[in-house]
Design brief:
By secondary structure, this protein is α/β, with parallel strands linked by helices. It contains six helices and seven strands; from the N terminus they run αββαβαβαβαββα.
Length: about 200
């Protein structure tokens, strides 16, 4: 999701400022091994643990529940978390540690209760945009589309801790240093967007 929806404009600006820079973007939810140089720089949704890495926390990306206004017109808007059980819910097909923690807090998103299951964040966002049902997505990303409505803002808000990391041996690399700084600044701006969004009549 970050690689498709958030990073491209950051990288486009970086490239315009440094036209000699060549960028290779690898999209994956797996944690690449920076110690073995599988990548120079990584954007991660968890704190890096290896000692030989330079890491910077850029903030917490907020996740909220969203639905297309077309879906809410047809099926109504839930007024409480409990009412989600009457709606078509969108979520993940397979569990991981993060999903298990989510289910402890919001069991209504268990696999059996979902009307649409996909392990792809992009597929889930596509289903939300298509009016399939209610699902989780990044609040700043959903705010770009006026037809997407955030529901249950006061009852459902999660934060994804977001870090940028690279091997400490690359600290003196000009190309890595400028890219690291651009990613940090761009992601911080993206995260701050949601802090400055006005509450609208569509947020329920």
């Amino acid at each position: 999701m970050i690689g498709v929806e958030v990073l491209p404009p950051i990288l486009a600006t970086l490239r315009s400022e440094h036209p000699e820079l060549i960028i290779e973007l690898v999209l994956s939810n797996k944690v690449d091994d920076l110690l073995h140089r599988e990548a120079d720089i990584a954007v991660r949704m968890l704190r890096p643990t290896q000692d030989a890495l330079v890491a910077r926390r850029v903030g917490g990306i907020e996740l909220g529940l969203h639905a297309h206004e077309r879906y809410l017109v047809a099926h109504g808007t839930p007024k409480s978390i409990d009412e989600l059980s009457y709606h078509a819910l969108i979520g993940f097909d397979h569990e991981n540690a993060y999903i298990r923690r989510l289910l402890d807090q919001f069991p209504m998103f268990s696999r059996a209760a979902l009307a649409f299951r996909a392990d792809s964040d992009l597929a889930q966002l596509g289903a939300i945009r298509a009016g399939f049902g209610i699902g989780m997505c990044q609040s700043a990303l959903a705010a770009r589309d006026e037809a997407l409505v955030r529901v249950l803002r006061g009852e459902f808000s999660l934060k994804m801790d977001t870090w940028i990391a690279m091997h400490e041996d690359l600290r003196e690399s000009a190309r890595c240093a400028v890219t690291f700084a651009a990613l940090a600044a761009g992601l911080e701006r993206y995260i701050q967007q949601v802090c400055h969004l006005p509450a609208s009549a569509g947020d329920l």
